[in-house]
Design the sequence.
């Protein structure tokens, strides 16, 4: 932090001289702008030098550190700091707050401390509480600030500054409007980038919200839901140190979408993150086919959870007398004792219960063997020579082989150590293991689910709420797994519990989390959450029992097979009434000219909401061409070429009904040609909609058309069939 000598004068000079777009209005203004840029360049240079020094220090410390177990946590933290600093190249410094008290604070991608450890930081991390006014201070609520400055940089060079006085002389709905509009107008690269320098108030409120329970964020297309979701991950990992130990799960709608957002969190230095779709959450299972909407809807219903619990529950053994054979003799464990053993593991997953019961069985058998021996010893004491001989023989067998103590106490009773050895032998004995396996078999989730889904009678027994037609539809599906099978497999795998050895050590927290189906995350973020079925929500809950979940989505863009038209319906099965709602209201992506077309489409989709308000106009009117069906593909190819020329250096995407994709792919190999569902969450500079009526004709087609219309940042073209 620096203190200005004459705060009021300094601020006034610059802010009156520099307009929001950074262009000057007079020679005096030009001079003020140059001086402001020079001042910020000086600061940026010092921040870069400090960052480089810290990187060098950390590198030296990491390379000289011994791999001491006790040091692991500290080394992990150092490595994280090192990675964050090393990656903090672009926009190292992007903001400045001038306090009413004359203090000056710079805000940047990472925090940088001065040489003096206890002193004020040189640069505030954008997530630090002290940086918050940069995103939320207004003229009405200046939060102790006199001015906010956006510093525009290209690599290590300051190229401009945009000042906003917070004294009421300039009122703007947007924070750092110049910088924001410049960011929104940039050509799209095909990858989302971080927006730390231009986050808006309503976005910041959600990013920094408490993470103690489910937070559901509704926002229309382009309102920055993905931006908010990803920056919230970065914020939570910064604000809650322990969250990095558990990792954060980011669930997106498709692999294509995950590729689109893949660079944002690494660029912010965050690596304790696992990205997946609901279909790829199970480490060893892959979806092998599409499915009908009817089946997706049936198998997405919450009722499957109880059905599967009953199904797995039915396979737990019932209490009955158990007769075990050990060293040629039979031992009986009465049904009452078995019932007690079973009761003691009630509520545990199948395999964990099995493991615990098997252990108790080993104990009981050991006790029975020891008791019988003691009885024999008593008899021996009473002088039965032949029994003595049997005991000796039996003991020789029991304590063989293995190098342990081979003798017994002088009185013939087993010592504690010998009893332990006996118990160990029973626990490792193959015959006993076979007996336990026959009594309580280990099960495989995939076999269990396919066994249930292909057996109509079994389905009718465990899923009685399905109609006869639904039972038939489910039981006659083909073999490879479909998307709606994944939550069923996950539910059964969870009810069964893990078997086998834990995954090998090594790798990062994210590697561990990725490899383990049952990993519990510190937080889960879901994008396009309106698409999740009730059973997919259960998958989320299993991975985050604390319910520290942020779900962003647009209920009006819902295209999934479920019939939810409100968030209350969508999340009732998962959270009941206990969730918090938030809303994003401003559309950043799609220009006003295009958003004006979306109102009627949204109405046709059955929504009572209005589309979000577009923040900017691009000056390009959306266009429509009517085309004969036979000309469609060729016209689309020509239109795409023209768009590519106009948006040279940017991106173009095509959206069409599913049945036209193949025909278009044949002529358009260098641009994405997607259905509306596949285009979810994506954006391009220009979008071409081919046969929009066809898009609207599908199931939930108007919602699909709403998605399709809102993918462009600049130009929208439509080819309508004659
Ligand atoms: N504060 C911001 N600063 C800069 N760019 C932003 C900001 N907020 C949103 N954007 C940009 O606006 C576009 C839309 O954002 P985003 O994809 O997060 O919206 P969305 O609500 O998830 O949209 P959709 O529901 O259509 O998928 C992106 O290019 C994003 O980078």
Sequence:
């Amino acid at each position: 932090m620096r203190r200005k000598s004459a705060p009021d004068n300094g601020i006034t000079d610059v802010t009156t001289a520099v307009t929001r777009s950074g262009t000057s209005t007079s020679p005096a203004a030009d001079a003020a702008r140059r001086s402001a840029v020079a001042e910020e360049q000086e600061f940026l240079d010092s921040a870069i030098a400090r960052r480089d020094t810290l990187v060098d220090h950390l590198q030296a410390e990491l390379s000289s550190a011994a791999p001491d177990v006790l040091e692991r946590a500290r080394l992990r933290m150092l490595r994280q700091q090192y990675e964050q600093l090393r990656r903090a190249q672009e926009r190292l410094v992007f903001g400045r707050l001038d306090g009413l008290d004359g203090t000056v604070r710079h805000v940047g991608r990472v925090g940088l401390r001065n040489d003096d450890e206890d002193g004020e930081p040189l640069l505030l991390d954008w997530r630090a509480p002290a940086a918050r006014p940069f995103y939320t201070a207004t003229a009405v609520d200046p939060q102790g600030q006199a001015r906010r400055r956006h510093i525009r940089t290209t690599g290590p060079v300051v190229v401009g500054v945009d000042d906003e006085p917070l004294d009421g002389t300039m009122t703007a709905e947007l924070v750092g409007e110049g910088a924001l509009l410049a960011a929104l107008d940039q050509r799209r690269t095909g990858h989302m980038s971080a927006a730390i320098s231009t986050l808006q108030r309503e976005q910041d409120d959600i990013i920094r919200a408490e993470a103690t329970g489910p937070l559901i964020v509704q926002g229309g297309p382009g309102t920055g839901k993905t931006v908010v979701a990803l920056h919230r991950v970065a914020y939570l990992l910064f604000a809650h140190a322990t969250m990095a130990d558990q990792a954060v799960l980011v669930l997106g709608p498709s692999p294509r979408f995950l590729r689109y957002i893949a660079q944002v969190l690494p660029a912010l230095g965050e690596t304790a993150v696992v990205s997946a779709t609901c279909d790829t959450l199970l480490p060893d299972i892959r979806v092998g086919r599409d499915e009908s909407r009817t089946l997706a809807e049936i198998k997405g219903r919450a009722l499957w959870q109880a059905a599967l619990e009953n199904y797995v529950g039915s396979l737990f053994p019932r209490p009955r007398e158990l007769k075990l054979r050990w060293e040629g003799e039979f031992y009986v464990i009465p049904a009452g004792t078995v019932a007690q053993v079973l009761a003691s593991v009630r509520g545990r997953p199948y395999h964990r219960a099995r493991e615990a019961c098997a252990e108790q069985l080993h104990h009981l058998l050991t006790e029975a063997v020891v008791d019988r021996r003691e009885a024999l010893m008593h008899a021996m004491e009473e002088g039965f020579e032949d029994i003595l001989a049997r005991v000796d023989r039996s003991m020789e067998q029991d304590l063989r082989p293995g190098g342990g103590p081979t003798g017994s106490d002088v009185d013939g009773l087993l010592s504690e150590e010998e009893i332990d050895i006996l118990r160990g032998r029973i626990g490792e004995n193959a015959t006993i293991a076979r007996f336990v396996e026959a009594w309580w078999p280990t099960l495989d989730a995939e076999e269990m689910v396919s066994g249930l889904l292909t057996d109509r009678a079994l389905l009718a027994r465990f899923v009685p709420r399905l109609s006869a037609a639904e039972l038939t539809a489910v039981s006659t599906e083909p073999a490879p797994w479909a998307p709606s099978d994944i939550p069923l497999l996950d539910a059964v795998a969870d009810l069964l519990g893990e078997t086998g050895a834990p995954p090998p050590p090594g790798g990062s927290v994210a590697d561990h989390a990725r490899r383990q189906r049952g990993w519990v995350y510190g937080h889960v973020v879901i994008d396009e959450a309106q698409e999740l079925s009730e059973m997919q929500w259960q998958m989320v809950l299993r991975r985050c029992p604390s319910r520290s979940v942020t779900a962003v989505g647009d209920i009006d863009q819902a295209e999934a097979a479920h019939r939810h038209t409100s968030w209350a319906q969508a999340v009732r099965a998962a959270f009941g009434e206990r969730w918090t709602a938030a809303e994003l209201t401003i559309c950043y992506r799609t220009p006003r000219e295009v958003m004006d077309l979306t109102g009627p489409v949204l109405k046709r989709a059955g929504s009572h909401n209005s589309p979000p308000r577009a923040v900017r106009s691009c000056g390009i009117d959306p266009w429509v061409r009517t085309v004969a069906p036979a000309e469609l593909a060729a016209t689309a190819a020509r239109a795409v070429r023209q768009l590519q020329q106009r948006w040279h250096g940017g991106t173009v995407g095509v959206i069409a009904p599913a049945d036209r994709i193949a025909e278009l792919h044949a002529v358009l190999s260098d641009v994405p040609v997607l259905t509306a569902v596949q285009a979810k969450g994506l954006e391009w500079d220009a979008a071409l909609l081919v046969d929009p009526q066809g898009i609207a004709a599908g199931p939930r087609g108007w919602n699909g058309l709403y998605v399709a219309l809102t993918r462009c940042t600049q130009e929208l073209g439509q080819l309508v069939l004659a």
